[in-house]
Amino acid sequence: MTDAPPILDVRDLVKHVPVRGGGLLRRTAGSLRTVDGVSLELRRGETLGLVGESGCGKSSLARLLTAVDRPTSGEIRLFGERLDQLRGSRLRAARRHIKLVFQDPYASLDPRMTVEAIVREPFVIHRDVAPRADHRRLVGELLELVGLNPDHARRYPHQFSGGQRQRIAIARALALRPEILVCDEPVSALDVSVQAQIVNLFSSLQKELGIAYVFIAHDLSVVEHIADRVAVMYLGRVVEQGTVEEVYDNPRHPYTGALLSAVPDPVPDPARRAARVGLQGDVPSPLDPPSGCRFRTRCPRAADECAAHEPPLHAPAAEPGHAAACHFPLQPAARGTAEA
Amino acid sequence: MTATTDKTPADAGHPLARFPGYDPAAPPLEVTDLRVAFADRPGRPGSGSVVVDGVSYRTEAGRTLAVVGESGCGKSLTARAVMGILPAGAQVTGGSVRLHGIDLLGLDRRALARIRGRHISMVFQDALSALNPVLPVGFQIAEVFRAHGDLTRRQAERQAVRMLDRVRIPEAARRAGHYPHQFSGGMRQRVMIAMALALNPEVVIADEPTTALDVTVQAQIMELLADLQAEHSVSLVLISHDMGIVANAADRVVVMYAGRVAEQAPAEDLYGRPAHPYTRALLDAIPRRGSRGRPLNVLQGAPPDPADPPQGCSFGPRCALAGENCRTAPPLHAVAPHHASACHHWKEVAGR
Amino acid sequence: MTSALQPTAPAAAAEPAAAGPAARPGEPGTLRRLLRRPRFFLPLGVVVLLCAMAAVPSAFAGWFGHGDPHQCSLEHSGQGPAPGHPFGFDVQGCDLYSNVVHGARDSISIGLLTTALTLVVAVVLGSLAGYFGGVADMLISRLMDVFFGFPMLVGMIVVLETFSVHSILSVSLVLALFSWPVLTRIMRSSVLATRGLDYVTAARELGAGPVRILLRHAIPNAIMPVAVLTSINIGGVITAEASLTFLGVGLTAPAISWGVQLNSAQQYFTTHPGLLLFPALFLSLAVLSFVLLGDCLRDAFDPRLR
């Protein structure tokens, strides 16, 4: 990537959610470490893919990045400004630069508002962006930009299909011309053919408007298609990070390897079907993550050292951009499948 | 494993032999020209939109038949019609469903209840809502044994623990006392599978069994299903929208679109030489290695509204190859042995 | 129909919905559409009629006879229906029909006023408790618990005893004082549920303040269960007023309300069932109509059910 400073710079981000126990006293039973020390960078116009299984903290991270939730500690710098410390009108102004697209287009649109009212809401909240007289025209332009017929602006969300609803949500997110879109599983609720339409929309919007994406998905093939760089999360931590080619062709963390091998290829092959060895067990509870390396309980390579010391995110000299948090990283030849 | 079911098909003492039409040589499940329609107004079931329109497929013992298609294509409704659990307002308006020759649609409620669960069972997508939250899972599995057999409570509970063990839930005896919410999503799906397989049914229908699960867990569940199937030569009907999962699990694939079968073929044929433009579009829409930087081939538009189906080929309005002759509904053309496509232009598609 | 197809997959629902007949241009004429439905216009007609009766009773009372509820003559005491007096006479020899018509005013006024007061309190307190949580929620919830734990009837009797005048206003205030917790609790849980939805998060993420979120998103989407209960509440309040009056702590004669009439009928209804029957009939009709109307309005104003 270029040497320009990142437009979004996240350092050691932590979010702990206290979990209350039952009973009258409602004592704090512990804390859910949804995001536990994440550092990321995003440059102008690039797409950072964020993959991981449910409970790995990717959605919590999305809410932190868009200032829906406040981090417990760590910093988020948006154009050099500490987003996590902003309040009031300065926070509101900063929100224009980074917008969130939700997973479920059935839940993210107010069912009682027309499409026009939904897409216009950003202008109503940020009054200085555009004079009231221009709102209708701007809404029409936005709908057109995302491939919807502006004549349908008076309809209600329930009159649209899932894919069209996601387009409405994207139009709303684009209204304030943000430089960054954080997309939290934006296509996983959609059918395959619709999913492809939305993925293409994201690509063309990036080309047209130069938006940078933080693209969160559990579907590795979608991320491979759309992302420039990828970060793999496991239990609140980034365990591997690098360019798409580096991570997909040559995973260094055993978890990435297992994740990639678990993705079913759309090509029938009876021989491979029998041979595939997946990852055993479930993700441990983020209430009580394992000591040392968090992946060790499911890792075929785990050794004593893994329980004792948490491996740092480390990039070898040969691949300075490709970091993995593992004491015993995979070697180039050995992909995840050969383990176990 | 229940040791109560003798699986020799020729045996006259086979539990299915008392039902009319039983034929051990017939396919485990054969759906013929099945039609399901919704009510267009309450109180008149079956009067409105046709959502399953002449679907036929048959399964083989020990094999997996996958039914793929996007939401609303009728794949789940077909399965629900087979199980006799259609939602309110929907009704079978034609066709037949035969289990080893026994016409399930012609059976009365009590006879159907004896077959369902014991000879044909279903695994649902959402295990959390399919399980009763206030009963321990062991108890719920034991109920299956008790409902269909003369087992005592204790025997049934022992069987339940064995089932949990078979679906590879660690510490089965202890976990049997746990409630559904104490299990992870993958473990709950295992419990569902244990319930579905408890009585060694001939046919198991799995409706999107892994859709709600993570990829690594998904792989585990598919592996478990494959192993259990091989052990008991169950005939599995896998309903899925995921072409990747189907590719890795199915022997034979039925592609459904707008309530009809678009294409039907052995898995390798279907993926290797699709002969229907919809199948091809589904395959092209999947991002894969090497598709970076290029837009994905997408299918424009949306499936037709079942209340207002297009004339002729239902895929016509979205099809690049559509011509004059597509105004008439295409029959299933035989592309190759065991490979059929409902497209007038199948030669062009397959030859591409 | 797609939701029935895959009931467990909210996300997978209704791709073809777009092509469906639902895709009509904007929706004017909600009222016109509603007016075509008997389920709506029948209760609406009754409610309008009763309200008109409450507003100008004299216009209705005189249909058959003199129409003056206070023109009584003991010689008619307890007589059955007679020409000009379709419902007959009460024990005082007053025309029962005109009494029942005049009774609508106090009964319906109390019903509407109490419910309006309750609704305002419920929406304000329920929204605050549900949306902000924390200390606000704790205070409001505990206050509700206190009222829930209190024997309502005893409370109302005690409070009403301290008032020297038992007017429509005082009775309404007392009824509202003891009926707000139910609606407030429902409003609170409804707002609480709405607050966690993605579109509320989306508004927050856009930078909307709590006032806008509450007024624009949370309250409109959360109010439906409360609105439906409100219409049921009108019926309940009218009944409660009747009960209080029956116990002698509500309105008192010479005020005319259905409650007062039922109260005076209690001693005579074995001999003169009409005294109980006619006010009770109007009371039930009023309660039923408000309930049905509320039900119908809920459906009408939910865009998803259009």
Summarize the structure.
The complex is a heterotrimer of chains A (340), B (352) and C (306). Chain A has 340 residues and is of the alpha/beta class.
Structure summary, number of beta strands of chain A = 11
H/I helix tally of chain C:
12
Q: H/E series of chain A, N to C?
A: EEEHEEHEHHHEHEHEEHHHHE
Summarize the largest interface: chains and residue counts: A-B, 43 and 46 residues
Care to describe what's here?
The complex is a heterotrimer of chains A (340), B (352) and C (306). With 340 residues, chain A is an alpha/beta fold. Chain A has a domain at 228-265 and 273-340. Chain A has helices at residues 58-65, 88-95, 115-125, 135-145, 162-174, 192-209, 220-226, 244-249, 254-262, 270-275, 304-308, and strands at 8-20, 28-42, 47-51, 73-78, 81-82, 98-101, 180-184, 212-217, 229-234, 237-243, 323-324. The model of chain A is unreliable at 334-340 (pLDDT under 50). With 352 residues, chain B is α/β, with parallel strands linked by helices. In chain B, 31% of the residues lie in helices and 20% in strands. Chain B has an eight-stranded mixed sheet with strand order 6-7-8-3-9-10-12-11, sandwiched between helices. Chain B has a four-stranded antiparallel sheet with strand order 2-1-4-5, covered by helices on one side. In chain B, α5 (153-166) crosses α7. Chain C has twelve helices and no strands. In chain C, α9 (198-206) crosses α10. Chains in contact: A-B, A-C, B-C. At the B-C interface, loops of B face α1 of C. Chain C: It is found in: Cell membrane. Chain C: Its main location: membrane. Chain C: This is Oligopeptide transport system permease protein. Chain C: One of its GO terms (biological process) is transmembrane transport. Chain C: The chain crosses the membrane at residues 40-64, 108-132, 139-159, 165-183, 226-256, 276-297.
